[in-house]
Amino acid sequence: MTSPPSQSNGNTGSHLKIPKIKFTKLFINGEFVDSLSGKAFEAIDPRNEEVITRVAQGEKGDVDLAVKAARQAFDNGPWPRFSGTKRRRVLLKLADLIEENGEELAALDTLNAGKLFSEGKVTDIPSTAGYFRYYAGAADKIHGTTLKSSSELQAYTLCEPIGVVGLIILWNYPAQIFGFKVAAALAAGCTVIVKPAEQTPLSALFYAHLAKLAGVPDGVVNVITGFGSTVGAAISSHMDIDKVSFTGSTEVGREIMQAAATSNLKPVSLELGGKSPFIVFDDVDVDKVSDLGLAGVTYNKGEVCVAGSRVFVQEGIYDKFVEKVVAKAKAKVVGDPFDPNVQQGPQASKKQYEKILSYIEHGKKEGATLLTGGKPLDRKGYFIQPTIFTDVTDDMLIAKEEIFGPVMPILKFKTVEEVIKRANDTKYGLVAGIMTNDWNIANTVSRSIKAGSIWINCYMNIEADCPFGGYKMSGFDTDLGMEGLYKYLQLKSVATPVFNSPWL
Ligand code: ADP
Q1: 0.90 exceeded by the pTM?
Q2: Which end of the chain has fewer CB within 10 Å, C or N?
């Protein structure tokens, strides 16, 4: 496909196309089915606030059916019993199918989440295929250890798939977060119930279809679209789900833990919010680093949990950095995310758009200086100008809370010790960026910051083999890396006496 398929798109340029929506029903036990209630909800196009389509609205009963299918597939089906090599083959096939359908998948997330189509094609979808390939490669390398134990006993460990897993995901990266979690859980031999965010339900259904085409047996992948308070809550409190892995807000993460605690004590993994420091020292190439800093808050219109949304700049280059970054923010092209010349699309939903604008108002009221942006675009859709604040102090709301939008608060600092202390003065600890050519500083700061990923002279480098998770209220457990697979495994130790051994 050279451009997203079919239908012309409402109120934007005629050269822009939107994809035909193929899948809008729940995916249970290998079939697309209506919700039990027959209810459906609207998927909205954030470019123009129009209804794209209506999607089946699952509820508790639908979750029960999906769990039954996943349970059956886990307890009696072939997937957990396949050799790792066989699972690997299926996952590699799925990765190929994702790539083959890359343009259509990218277009779905452009249409429904406002993501740049060009970026989806070259980044999101290839990365998602890459996660499936990475975990496919791990599927036949899952093994335990042999232990000497005491003189009368020897023991070994088994790594068994944990069981039926609920995967609850956010709307900002519908493809990649699906890939992180589903690829690892399937490689481990688990069966899954995926709940995409209600704002972006479309692409997960397409992935489910591809999983079936790739040879994933029925019941292994189920997708229930619907709302958090019904579908999400039913998953996290379900007595027959063995584990929940979640990416989303800290508030919902807390609710999921509570639901798990008051149901069957299922283990949960949480990847939550962040308010990550992006620290710029005096010795850097300001031009390059201002590009990186701006990307750190405007990439994916700032709807990124790893956004570097506390930009600490050392006093010696502060003015120069501010000047560069403001000029670059002003030059950014905001508009239709299908247009290849556009650099920033609309926010994913009305709720998020309003939330970002309210943070901008807070920033102004609290006395920060608005240097550029701060307003929505004068057109339909959820478009917000890239926004930069200076004279920001650590106690301001825009320096403390996750904005999840294209807003850069810039803070000035003098010394290494000072910036370490201030960077750590947050309830979050997801990532940190350190920009310096001085390796003593880089080493000192990277070891001192309490965050799960540190990026030195680079930013947002999420890679399949790098564990990704947070400190503090950014959550616990990691996605990605081999650790992202281990969380879907249950460790069992087996001991047996060793009699009459000449070595005892
Ligand atoms: P946001 O507030 O930015 O929309 P959330 O953290 O609320 O992000 O949503 C992330 C995911 O969690 C979505 O799939 C959403 O439907 C789901 N969710 C929301 N509330 C709950 C809940 N109480 N229990 C389980 N999942 C939920």
Answers
A1: yes
A2: C
